[in-house]
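Sequence design from tokenized structure. All designs in this work follow the same two-part layout: the structure record, then the generated sequence. An example of the structure record is given first.
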């Protein structure tokens, strides 16, 4: 391994002063430089036989010193002579080695696993809580699940960002075992359905047999066996199993209608039906009965926690939030009863049903708004991991016995920088047709909120929503943008999830219509409030948000000074025609909301709502970014859009990301995305930019 400090000592004529942050940054190269060539450079103090890479480090150090001063100062009048917070380097948002997440305690309470970094590579760490012994597993993972007997760790991995996901198992008893791929199928999606209590086995969904639908498998990693539990006949959208691994129900789709079926001998019997806009999913089964705990909007507008009779369909409402849907439910591993329910009307709302649990968890919020979620729980219900989220980051705790104090385990990337981040506040306004629209406004701290340059940050989905807590659908871009000096408005436009059936249905047929009007009305609201400079508003989004950015630039060009599109669709008809196979059961939903390209009349409407057909109207500069492995919104959606823009002489910057797809996993690609965005927005809105981040010099090593 190259010794960076020793290499620097060989060049006494170059005086370089490092602060603690610099040393942390240059560590990116220490273990990942591979040249084997040898050279002599007496002028540099490098003798024959020493690594060529030592010279590269010296050059990198000098370049970092030269380029580090290239930050772009704000030029917008509202930001002049203002005391902005410290400029947070891009690397702190995308490559902070201190950031951790996904803490999970084993069912026996003896071990803890979490997502972090080993050296410079993504890894899963595992710690024996009694001895403190630790080991790392070098994988970039999406989920972590312990087996019911605490022997195996199950990890979901998407190596290339193309959603070809695999489930791996690591035998934690052997200690030296390498991750074993339980689903070694090419070009498929596999994911964990649930673990089986007191067992090494796990239930897994996979579309290995038929790319359109998902079968259910039971896998025993100890024996290396994989058994097909249920083959999808082509219309099952989900399988429901109990904690013992028994298949108890399945959800079937017939066009836009859905219904529940339960096993009846070797056949299936339909017991419940619900309408196309009603939401319904099982949280867990009540042992020894034909009832289940579920989240349901059957016969009501908002999704509520209910106890339901699976034969008659009768529901008893246990808890509901009058403003929004119930989003999550925490179930007891011992009693199979609900312990907590979570919703987010504006700030997080935590509803605990167990008074002893509430007494342990509520103090973690510190008397301020916070999302306090139990993320894993041992079988004794005493040892658990808890995440506490605010608008500025997440902190993760381990709770032991009821008499022990919580132990801080780790924090999200920027939680340690909370004092420099911006507060986010819930807002609401009336759309032009009178519909109440909710969202969030983040303002740069230390700046008078008058006529600021503003970014309208649009969430994807579109059947998702923005939330108050850090991360969320927009991956906390709002904090990054606010640090650069922008007001950031996030809008939960009609069709966003969480606000009930009626709010969702108002989006039918409204792509590039009233859904977009809600965004424009949000900009007008911010201008009327005195917050936004109407001449300096950008629209920025990913996926559907990227589509909105393209619609904004092409169909409402008078509103926006520039647009940033990330993995956005430009051609709606082509989007559905080239959709991944596993979208097949969701196509009735897409066709209802967006249109059917096979119908000439509907295709004409879809084409009219496709930005690629309106490029001549563009007035402002555009930035388009896309992962080449995107299986949902294919890369050609951006390629064709950029070609069309350039064909009519429009100004557009195009950035592609190798090794990633519909959203970046690699920090190097996120670094590039943030850097391009900050420079682009500084040019069209007048905010500030870091100009250069020395992690860019090391990105080639990854």
């Amino acid at each position: 391994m190259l010794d960076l400090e020793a290499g620097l000592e060989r060049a006494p004529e170059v005086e370089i002063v490092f602060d603690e942050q610099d040393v942390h940054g240059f560590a990116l190269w220490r273990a990942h430089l591979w040249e084997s060539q040898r050279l002599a450079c007496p002028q540099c103090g490098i003798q024959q036989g020493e690594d060529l890479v030592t010279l590269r480090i010296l050059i990198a150090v000098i370049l970092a010193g030269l380029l580090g001063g290239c930050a772009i100062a704000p030029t917008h009048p509202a930001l002049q002579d203002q005391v902005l917070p410290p400029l947070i380097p891009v690397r702190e948002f995308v490559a902070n080695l201190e950031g951790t997440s996904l803490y999970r305690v084993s069912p026996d309470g003896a071990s803890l696993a979490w997502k972090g970094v080993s050296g410079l590579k993504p890894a899963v760490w595992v710690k024996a809580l009694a001895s403190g012994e630790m080991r790392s597993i070098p994988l970039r993972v999406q989920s972590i699940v312990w087996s019911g007997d605490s022997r195996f760790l199950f990890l979901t991995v998407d190596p290339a960002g193309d959603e070809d996901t695999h489930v791996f198992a690591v035998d934690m008893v052997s200690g030296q075992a390498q991750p074993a791929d339980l689903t070694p199928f090419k070009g498929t999606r596999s994911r964990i359905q649930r673990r089986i209590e007191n067992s090494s086995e796990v239930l897994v969904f996979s579309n290995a047999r038929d790319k359109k639908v998902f079968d259910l498998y039971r896998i025993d990693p100890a024996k290396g066996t994989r058994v097909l539990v249920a083959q999808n006949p082509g219309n099952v959208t989900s399988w429901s199993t109990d904690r013992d691994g028994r298949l108890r129900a399945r959800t079937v789709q017939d066009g836009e209608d859905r219904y529940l079926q339960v096993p009846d001998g070797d056949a299936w019997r339909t017991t419940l039906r619900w309408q196309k806009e009603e939401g319904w999913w099982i949280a867990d089964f009540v042992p020894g009965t034909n009832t289940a705990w579920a989240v349901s909007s059957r016969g009501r507008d908002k999704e509520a926690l209910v106890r339901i009779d699976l034969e008659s369909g009768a529901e008893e409402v246990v808890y509901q939030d009058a403003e929004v849907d119930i989003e999550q439910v925490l179930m007891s591993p011992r009693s199979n009863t609900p312990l907590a329910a979570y919703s987010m009307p504006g700030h997080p709302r935590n509803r605990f049903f167990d008074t002893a649990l509430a007494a342990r968890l509520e103090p973690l919020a510190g008397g301020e708004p916070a999302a306090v979620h139990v993320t894993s729980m041992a079988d004794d219900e005493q040892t658990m991991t808890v995440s506490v989220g605010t608008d500025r980051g997440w902190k993760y705790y381990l709770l032991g016995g009821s008499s022990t104090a919580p132990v801080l385990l780790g924090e999200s990337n920027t939680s340690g920088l909370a004092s420099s981040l911006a507060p986010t506040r819930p807002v609401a306004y009336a759309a032009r047709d009178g519909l109440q629209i909710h969202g969030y406004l983040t303002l740069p701290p230390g700046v008078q909120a008058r006529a600021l340059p503003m970014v309208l940050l649009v969430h994807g989905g579109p059947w998702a929503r923005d939330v108050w807590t850090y991360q969320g659908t927009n991956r906390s871009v709002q904090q990054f943008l606010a640090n650069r000096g922008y007001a950031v408005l996030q809008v939960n436009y009609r069709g966003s999830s969480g606000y009930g059936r009626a709010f969702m249905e108002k989006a039918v047929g409204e792509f590039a219509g009233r859904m977009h009007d809600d965004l424009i009305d949000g900009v007008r609201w911010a201008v009327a409030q005195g917050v936004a400079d109407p001449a300096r508003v950008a629209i920025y989004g990913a996926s559907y948000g990227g589509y909105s950015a393209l619609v904004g630039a092409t169909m409402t060009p008078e509103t926006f000074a520039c647009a940033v599109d990330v993995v956005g669709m430009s051609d709606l008809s082509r989007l559905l025609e080239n959709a991944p196979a596993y979208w097949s059961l969701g196509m009735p939903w897409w066709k209802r909301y967006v249109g059917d390209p096979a119908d000439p009349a509907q295709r004409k409407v879809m084409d009219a709502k496709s930005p690629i057909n309106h490029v001549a109207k563009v007035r402002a500069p555009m930035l388009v970014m896309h992962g080449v492995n995107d299986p949902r919104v294919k890369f050609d959606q951006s390629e064709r859009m950029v070609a069309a823009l350039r064909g009519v002489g429009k100004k557009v910057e195009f950035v592609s990301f190798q090794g990633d797809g519909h959203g970046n996993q690699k920090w190097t690609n996120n670094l590039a995305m943030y850097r391009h965005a900050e420079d682009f927005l500084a040019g069209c809105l007048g905010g500030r930019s870091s100009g250069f981040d020395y992690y860019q010099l090391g990105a080639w090593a990854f």
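The two ends are 16 Å apart (CA to CA). We note this feature because it recurs in several other targets discussed in the main text.
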